[in-house]
Structures are given as structure tokens and as C-alpha cells.
Task: structure prediction
Amino acid sequence: MFRMILRGFGSSGMGKLDALVIFSALSMLFGMLGRAQVSTASLNGTVQDNSGAVIPGARIVVVQTQTNLTIETVSGPDGSFRVRSLPVGPYLVRVSKEGFSKYEQGGIVLTVGQEATLPITLAVGSATQNIVVTAQAAAVESTSSTIQNVVEDQVSSIFR
Result:
């Protein structure tokens, strides 16, 4: 098939080398654009109590504060949770479980391709007690952030 394309270019006055260069450039461009389309992140973590024991069945509510997109999940038997394909931006996380104080943390900002890990500790107490974390989230990067840099560099180089 590639030879047919080259023959067609050769007969139109364009050299085979020119056609090969154009074909290669277009292949690279579409390959980079395909990778640059990743615009989501994920948030995962473990819910535990003050003693470090995991808390299964905790209700986790993740809210994108710019759009009010709300996603709910429940921690698994090992206390872990994972929310995938989140649009990038600022988030608020609320966690609740009967017999524990409610937990809320804002200031979480997810970036392209990030897999942020959020450790959550619930205090034993009544559901009317709230624990609010107002400081910037200390999200731990569990994958390399170089993916974001590579995508940004490739997109920037296209438009130079």
C-alpha cells in the first residue's frame, strides 16, 4: 500500500523522497496528537482509623469544585478506593462512615495523567462531628510526572 502511495506521488511531479518526508511528518503529528488527548487524572487512597486499621465500606464523594461534577464510591474490603478518568482541576473529597467523624478535604488539584494518592484517617466518633482539612492536599505521585512534561513539550513543538 505504501508503494502505491509513493507511485501516485511520483507521477504527480512530487518526488518519492518528498512524499516519504510528508508521510513521516504526518504520522508523527497524528501519533503525538493521539497521546496528547489524555486529559484526565485519577485519585486513589486508603481509608483508615487513628490506629491504622482499614475501614471498608466508607462512602467517598469526590467533587470537582469548578463544575460541581460529583462522583461517589465506596472503600473496598481493604479500605482502598480508586476514582479514574477525573477531569483535571480542583477537587473536594468527603468521606463518611457510621461510627466515625465525617472527613472533608479541599485544595486537591489534579493535573493531566496524575495518579494522586490521598491517605484518609477517620476519627472514631459520632457522625455529627466533622474533621475538615483546609490545607493544600499532599497528594503523592505514584507514577512519573514526566508523562505530563513530554505531552506538553510535544504539543508545544507542534505549534512552533
